Amino acid sequence: MHKPTSVSRARAGLYPALLLAITLTACTPDTSASEPPDGSAPTEVPAQAAPAQTPPPDRVLAPPPQSIEVGWTELPGRFSEIGVGGIGEDPSVWALSAERWPGSPEVNYWNGDGWDALGRDAAALAVGPNGYPWIVDSDGRIFEWNGTDWIDRPGSARDIGIGADGSVWIIGTDPAPGGYGIYRWTETSWEQAPGGAVAIDVATQGDAAVGHQSEPWIIDENNRISRWTGSDWSQQPGEARDIGVGRNGAVWIIGTASAPGGHSIATWNGEDWASAPGGAVKISVDANGFPYAVTDDNRLLRGT
């Protein structure tokens, strides 16, 4: 599979079908006229337009793909949730077990050969650029792993997402139009953003004019997809049940159409969603844009 690449709002504008204007060059009319030999009035010759110039093939951009090929490799174990982070070639992969331990699934870390259980239960997780996760437990409490201990953070949440710049966003527990309140971590407290949602993940990109910025993507209770503009939410096409964003900006979703393994899988092509083979119920994306998915029978798949 070709590596999905980052698609910022600046790049998204490159995809309309007609990108190059065709220039019509008009010939300058000949205003001089010769007198006919019979002495009748001179006849003006009408101006002629030059033929339209066809852009060279190498200057015409192809439309974005409507589908993408993905091979899926199954990892050992049975899991209910997946989170992938880190910034290197070797992703930091964390997962929640399919079994409850003791009150909800147990946090596990992939060591390259197998899984290390951390003896901590959780209901949701996200992994930062440092390779360490933040989790939400079955009571909605929020914890950050520092490599040796779990740090208790204030507030309560239902879902959590972390950008490549380390920015942390959560879906809170307070009802709001669209689902539940949306909050950003300020290093000391949670700052509320407008709107409501039920799922979130975070890109780190933005317009070149304002520099890179935290850009979360959300799914609301009606399966609508939106992305943060810096001040409000911009609804995107399609519907989804889960969403994951890689460090390079690649965005993947679990759609709403039924498929073997759960529901449809797709990736953002700059204008719309390009379908991928297979089906799943949960998804996360590594630093290079490759997806990891959990199916409805708790299999963990890695996209290749």
From TrEMBL:
Residues 29-68 are annotated as: Disordered. This is Uncharacterized protein. Residues 41-52 have a biased composition (Low complexity). InterPro entries: Beta-propeller_rpt_TECPR (IPR006624). Residues 1-33 form the signal peptide. Keywords: Signal. Residues 53-66 have a biased composition (Pro residues). It comes from the Bacteria.
